[in-house]
Amino acid sequence: MHYEAKTDLDFLYALSKSYFEDVLHYYFLQKYIVDFWSHLNVVDKDLFELGIVNGFNKHICEKSYVYSVSNLVNLNSQLLLFQENDINSLSGKVINPKNEILYLNLPILNNYFSVLKFIWKINVKEILHKECFIRFIFENNSDHREHILKHEDVLKLEGLGWIEYQLPINIYKCDNIQLSIEINGSINMQIDYIRLDTFNKEMITCIPNIGDLLPNFHEICPNVPETFKDKYFSRKEMENLL
Fold this sequence. Notes:
Structural class: alpha+beta
Order of helices and strands: HHHHEEEEEEEHEEEEHHHH
Shape: globular
Helix content: 25-40%
CATH architecture of the domain at 67-207: Sandwich
């Protein structure tokens, strides 16, 4: 079953024309297909060291170069205090500083691109104090760079909902990349993932409410084969069996 599930997933990737079509496929499989990701077992030791312990997070990391910050909970159990569920999160779980100072230090990543862009998916719900900031940090063995959003910058993001925010930092091929984010406790915000890309052009990309998209999934992604439904139990079928 593992091989068949992996083949089906690779087929969906081949149909996708953009990263966001990949995302819709992810949500479709999570919402409508029971335990699809359980067939994709993680056996890569390097991924365990990143806190990745399930098939879904493995594949979004390997195929879409997305690292869910919820993986950090598997490396530091204290972060459970800041973890919460969110339907619009790719993994279903996000990190929320909950009005406290929070410094997230991601595991060391390797760069397989010639030019690299860093894209954070965040949701700035409310500014609690004007003395707020969000600090994004990049460093490796030979370089250290920071990008800081101060009050006037964060104000432009408040209330936009989920967005992808691309850092104005381009990195040429290097190894041992260390990424961090610091929130000073004056912002109510959620963090979903960091994504690595080479072609992304927009500094800010608004993410639609996934609950509005899924009912029309087959209109948005008409290439998804109907035979997918015949291979796996749908959630609705499982509910009828219980």
